[in-house]
Amino acid sequence: MSVSDPVADMLTKVRNAAMARHEKVDIPASKLKLEIVKILKTEGFIKNFKKVNQDGLNSIRVFLKYDDKNSSVIHGLEKVSTPGRRVYAGYKDLPRVYNGYGTLIVSTSLGVTTGKKALEKQVGGELICTVW
Q: Which of 33, 52, 102, 106 could bond to 132 as cystine, CB 3.0-4.6 Å?
């Protein structure tokens, strides 16, 4: 069965695994998903990730991060742009997520980056998702 929005499927798998307090979750691999997972790692929302090849299928294994009270570091994970409604913004119009405590992930002409880095480089693009 094909998925109409693979990025939203990835975000849902991570969100559900975090709510169920799983240690790790496997996601079918793509370049865009790998870049999003790299941003989640650098921003401190996940412990680690690695590329896995199971039976000829490439996937990304994401190791989730929890705090001292065993609650997930990811409090929210929301897709902004969908296949039916693409959302674009210039660098001056990039929204702030939870007054700067969250992270906006943007697909720009320079690659997938956070909202803060896109603002520094003065590039806009498609708003992929927000994480807080």
A: 102
Closest CA to 117 of 14, 35, 29: 35
50 inside domain: yes
Domain that holds residue 15: 6-64
Q: Which two structure tokens, joined as six digits, stand for 64?
A: 């989730």
Phi, psi of 76 (to 5 degrees): -155, 145
pTM of the complete model: 0.93
The whole-number mean pLDDT for each consecutive block of 10 residues of the chain, a chain of 132 residues, reads 87 96 96 97 96 93 96 95 96 93 96 96 97 96
Together in a domain, 31 and 81: no
